[in-house]
Structures are given as C-alpha cells and as structure tokens.
Amino acid sequence: MQILIVDDDPGLRQSLALLLGESGHACVAEGDPARALERARGEGGEALVLMMSAYGNEDAAIAAMREGAYDYLHKPFRPDEVTLTLRKAQERERLRREVASLRATLGTGLVKDEVVAESTAMRKLLELAGRAAGSRSTVLVTGESGTGKEVLARAVHRMSPRSEAPFVAVNCAAIPEHLLESELFGHVRGAFTGATQDRPGLFEAADEGTLFLDEIAELPPALQAKLLRVLEDGQIRRVGDQRTRAVDVRVVAATARPMEEAVRQGAFREDLFYRLNVIRLHLPPLRERPEDVPALVTRFAQEAARRLGRPVSLTPRALARLCEHSWPGNARELRNALERAATLSGHERLDADDFDLSAGHGGNGAGGDALDLKGEVEAVEASVIRRALAVAGGNRREAAQQLGVSLRTLFYKIRKYGLS
Ligand SMILES: Nc1ncnc2c1ncn2[C@@H]1O[C@H](COP(=O)(O)OP(=O)(O)OP(=O)(O)O)[C@@H](O)[C@H]1O
Ligand SMILES: [Mg+2]
Questions:
Q1: Which of 75, 141, 180, 351 is deepest in the core (most CB within 10 A)?
Q2: What domains does the chain contain, in order, with CATH numbers?
Q3: Pocket of ligand 1 (CB under 6 A)
Q4: CB 405 within 8 A of CB 390
Q5: Beta-sheet pairing, 235-236 with 245-246
Q6: Strand order in the sheet with 139-142
C-alpha cells in the first residue's frame, strides 16, 4: 500500500515514514496541504483517509470522519497504534473490493437474460455496469443510435440496490422546453395557466430509484443549471413552489451525441458534464463487436416467434449474411430486419434472400420499413422537415414556425436526420 503522510511537523513526518517503511509500505510525506491534495489526485484511485489530530482538536477529527475519513489517531500515538489502525483500514478496503466484485458477478448474472453480451467488449462493459450499479454515482451511457443505451441503463438499475424502486425514463429532446421543467420537477397549483393542481415531477416519481435522462445533450441551459443543483444537494423545487423537497434519485444519462463536442461549443455546461460523467459506459457500435450478432439474432428471433405465435429460425447462409452486414443502425436495425423478414416471409426458416439488407434499410433502421412504425414516422418527419426548409429557403426560424415546432426542436431533428 502507498501512503501519503501529511503533517506540518517535519519530525513527525519523518518518524512516521520510517515506521511505516519498516512494515513494508511505500511512503511519501508532504507538509503543504494544497500540494498534498494535488499529489493524492495525481496518484488517482480511491484513497483511504486516516486523520491525525492533536489533543483538544476532536471536533476536526469528527468532522473529517463525517466527510468520509476512515478513522483517526490522537497525537501523540504509539507505533503499534498506527500499524493496527492501518491494518484495520487495509482489511476494510479489501472487504470493500471483495463485495464490489461479488456484486458485479451477481449483478451480471441478474441481467444475463436481458442483455446479450457475448463479445469481450460487452462482457467487460456489463461487469463495469455491475460495479457502477452498487455505487450512488451518476452514470453516463454513450454510443451510437441503436447500440442499446437504454437496455444498459435498465441493467444498471436492475443490478443496483434500488432495483425494487421505480426506473423512470424521460427523453429530454422529445418534450418541449416549456413543459420539461414541470415534467422533471413537478409544479404547484397556479404555477402557470393550466396548472389546476399540484403535481409531482419525474424526480419525485423516481424517488429511491433511478431516473434515466435520455438524449441529455439536448437539455436546455436553464434546466442544465437546475439539474446540476439537484445532483449536488439532492433537493428539487416544484415549479411555482417556495420550498424544496429532498429526493433520493440515482441519475443515469444517455447520449448518442459526443458530449465533449457540445461542451466545447458551449451548448452544454462543463461542470454538469463532469458531474454526469463520473462513470462512463460506452457502447461500441455493433460492427466493432460482430461476436454479438449471432446471439442477438437468436434473441430477436425468439422475440419475433413469440409475437407471431410460430417458430422462427434461420439457415446458416442467412446467419452468415447477417454476420457480414455492417449494421449502421446497430442492434435496433438488426432487430427490425429480423422482425420484417419473419413477418413477410412465408416460411419458418428464414434464408438469406428473406433479408433485404440494401443500403436503403440502413441508418436508424428507417427507410421503407412498413413494419417499423418508429422508422416510418421518422422517414416521413424527415421528409416534411426537408420540404419546410426548402420552402423557407433554408431559414430555420421560418421553417420552425411553419412546422409549428420550437426552433430548438427543429435544430434537434435536423441534426438527428442529418439534414442541413
Ligand atoms: N445487448 C443487447 N441485448 C439485447 N437487446 C439489445 C441489446 N442491445 C440492443 N438491444 C435491443 O435493440 C434495440 C435498441 O436498443 P436501445 O433502445 O437500448 O438503443 P439506444 O442506444 O437507446 O438507441 P437510440 O439512441 O436510438 O435511442 C432495443 O429493441 C433493444 O432491446
Ligand atoms: Mg434510446
């Protein structure tokens, strides 16, 4: 174990370093607290803090314990007191790691039926998610559209000690800005026209559970500030309310858009980004983990069979064909392709020809897919927006007015569909 000794007394620093060095620890000593803090950060990892306090300074020791210090030593102390306290701390740290690792193993087992994870990348990610689940930290899930961000967010919840409490999902981009605050935080009667009674928001609905904030990069600036406050002090305020309320909510946020870029452009608060990014779970695109394709195919074929009420299987040729495809729309595209083939083909055993993997079916799984409602709606939406933009001569404000949506919504959709 590496030990950083911090004290203003050089004599004490030296004798402690000597003592601990003898029992086999690598020690560094520091007299300046600010420098010590920098050094501790540089070392990374989780430090275990033992407080040393002089006689008559118990308050500081107790305050330190309240902030998470493990134990404290009263000056002056005997050498065996130091080594004993240290051994106890080490033992606790070992147990903590063991519990975390057991929880990860157990958690991964819990969601094995829900999340396909054959590739090494996915197995590692799921294990990391299991470890993250045990903590209270916020989690940021990133990855291209259709990679399974929501699936993973639910898995974090299911593996967490909060799994019996609600998992509440909200898409920050889908709700108009003026409604989003009340949606998230609730409102009191009379807060605005139409607020005829008190209503709790989604934070309160998710109390003791998990709140999944999807498309977090689209959260408007005013709400970014409010979200930061909740994450920092666990207090929410309903719109129009005087008082604040305490909530115990674990936030999992997701985005398909590179957050670092949004931060650089000033569209997303840096402090909130760091607050959300405590644990990052990044889902690689499906084309980078082809080992997952056969297992996903099996999963989706079973789902299709259940829905259709008849068996669905694939010929080896068909499976080979699916394994070769690059799946720009990731798992969602694969799921849609299977569903479409299973529904349209007359036979139980699907062959390669039953799959139409031409370019038109790429992207978000949209494009001429009569059975994929979401894809169909999106295709229509994209074409209406394209027309409105053309009519408005490229003027987005005018196009937004024409379409009856906010400028913000229009920007979001333009980005989503890659229009310009
Ligand atoms: N590892 C997986 N195991 C089982 N099903 C998966 C997995 N990954 C994705 N899916 C399925 O693929 C579809 C897309 O997953 P999900 O909605 O979680 O993706 P997403 O990343 O949130 O996409 P978007 O960015 O478009 O919202 C869902 O039907 C989901 O059940
Ligand atoms: Mg999603």
A1: 141
A2: 2-99 (3.40.50.2300), 111-284 (3.40.50.300), 287-361 (1.10.8.60), 375-417 (1.10.10)
A3: 115-116, 143, 145-151, 256, 299, 331-332, 335
A4: no
A5: antiparallel
A6: 167-171, 210-214, 250-255, 139-142, 279-282
Lowest mean pLDDT: which of 161-175, 214-228, 373-387, 402-416? Answer: 373-387
Choose one of 292, 302, 332 to mutate for the ligand 1 pocket test, by most ligand atoms within 8 angstroms of C-beta.
332
Residue minimizing CA distance to atom 1 of ligand 1: 116
Residue 249 CB contacts under 8 Å (≥ 6 apart), including other chains: 203, 206, 207, 208, 209, 210, 211, 230, 234
Pocket test for ligand 1, best of 150, 252, 417 (most atoms within 8 A of CB): 150
Ligand 1 atom nearest to CA at 143: 21
The answer to whether residues 333 and 369 touch, using CB atoms and an 8 Å cutoff, is: no
pTM exceeds 0.85: no
Q: Which two tokens stand for residue 179?
A: 């409604």
Q: Whose CA is nearest to atom 28 of ligand 1?
A: 332
Backbone angles phi, psi at 72, to 5 degrees: -140, 155
Burial class (CB in 10 A: 0-12, 13-18, 19+), 55: exposed
pLDDT digits (tens, 9 = 90+) for 199-223: 999 999 999 999 999 999 999 999 9
28-74 pLDDT, tens digit per residue, is: 899 998 888 888 776 555 678 888 888 777 888 888 888 778 888 88
